[in-house]
Design brief:
The structure is a single chain. By secondary structure, the protein is mainly alpha-helical. It has 4 domains: about 1-40, no CATH class; about 45-190, no CATH class; about 210-310; about 315-348. Helix content is about 80%, strand content about 0%. It has helices at about 5-20, 25-35, 45-70, 70-80, 85-110, 115-140, 145-160, 165-185, 200-215, 220-225, 225-250, 255, 260-285, 290-310, 315-345, and strands spanning about 1-5, 35-40. It has a two-stranded parallel ribbon with strand order 1-2. The radius of gyration is 26 Å and the shape is globular. About 20% of the residues are buried.
Length: about 350
């Protein structure tokens, strides 16, 4: 018997019916396979995931509330005022405890996936606190914080890789992006440009490089269950940077105020081309993630351009009618291709 959710059961029964109609399955095989499906009344796996996510969100809110409580923070600072090393060592020790606890549970009880992720996340949280306190201890006014992010990358990368934890790996990629931004900012003297690039342009290359590495190391990342997280973060860095570029271009704030909309149009077109290419690749490879990113950021691009060019000058009804008509034409074209492919498959 195969335990499936209501949605999975509906999809599988529809597929079995279509296979029977096409002659791929006989009626007896259809009935035999359909009889192996057992609908579960509640998706306990999803409930477990949502419960742990909510618990982690509550922990984050609790920590944020702690820092917002000036009286409580004053007491904590007073308690640890005798030693700055204690303010670093205690959270570091707690982080190590949580990491060891998570790895221990992973070896003994591999089925408790979400609880292990939650334990490792607490290690991430205390690692961040320890690095923050270390930065306070070593601060000399230079603003060179990149080494702290690099230290976080080392810790999160090792834990995420060997622990096969997508959540910890996510923080590794976030720390890596923060390190890149802080390092290039420090090297440029915290100016607007580094090697002629402002921050969004830098992160276009950063996101592209991350996606390229993700593809090159695909087999290894898939083996460690880290490929999906890596690809999603690479796409996020790339498309968010392209979106910001479509608004500001490769200009600093002072120069941007004097720019015309036409000067920024090439960046908007580049953003649109990237989204369309992403959608095209997704249709060729049936990649749901690429399709989602492409469609989402294409819509963001259209809405951004609308507010830039047509919010004051064009009637809203006309704008959305034009948009609806263009999308309908694309949809009709896609529908023709779909039916043509379907007829060819049946004739084959």
């Amino acid at each position: 018997m195969m335990n499936v959710t209501r949605k999975q059961e509906r999809l599988l029964r529809r597929a079995l019916s279509e296979w029977e109609q096409d002659g791929t399955l006989s009626n007896e095989e259809h009935l035999r396979l359909a009889g192996t499906l057992k609908r579960v009344t509640l998706d306990w796996q999803r409930l477990s995931r949502y419960a742990f996510w909510t618990a982690l969100a509550c922990v984050i809110i609790a920590v944020g509330s702690l820092f917002a409580d000036s009286e409580m923070m004053a007491r904590i600072i007073e308690f640890f005022a005798f030693s700055s090393l204690a303010r670093i060592g205690l959270p570091a020790m707690l982080a190590v405890v949580f990491y060891l606890w998570g790895f221990s549970r992973q070896r003994r009880e591999t089925q408790w996936h979400y609880s292990i992720e939650a334990i490792l996340f607490l290690g991430v949280l205390f690692t961040a606190i320890a690095l923050w306190q270390l930065g306070e201890r070593l601060d000399n006014g230079s603003g060179h914080i990149a080494p702290l992010f690099l230290a976080g990358c080392a810790v999160y990368g090792l834990v995420g890789f060997f622990g096969r934890s997508g959540l910890v790996w996510l923080f590794f990629l976030l720390s890596l992006g923060n390190w890149f931004g802080a390092k290039t900012g420090y090297m440029s003297g915290w100016g607007a440009y580094w090697l002629g690039m402002n921050y969004p342009v830098r992160f276009i290359f950063f996101g592209g490089a991350l996606l390229a590495l993700c593809w090159v190391l695909r087999a290894m990342l898939q083996q460690r269950n880290l490929y999906t997280t890596s690809k999603a973060m690479g796409l996020t860095y790339l498309f968010v940077a392209l979106w910001i570029m479509s608004i500001f271009g490769n200009y600093d704030i002072d120069s941007w105020y004097g720019m015309t909309r036409e000067a920024l149009l090439p960046w908007a077109l580049l953003f649109a081309v990237a989204a369309v290419v992403c959608i095209y690749i997704s249709l060729k490879t049936d990649d749901g993630m690429l399709r989602g990113f492409g469609l989402t950021f294409l819509a963001i691009n259209l809405y951004t351009r609308y507010f830039e060019y047509f919010w004051d000058g064009m009637n809203k009804v006309i704008f959305f009618l034009i948009l609806a008509g263009s999308l309908a034409v694309i949809g009709r074209y896609a529908e023709k291709i779909w039916h043509t492919a379907e007829r060819r498959a049946k004739s084959d």
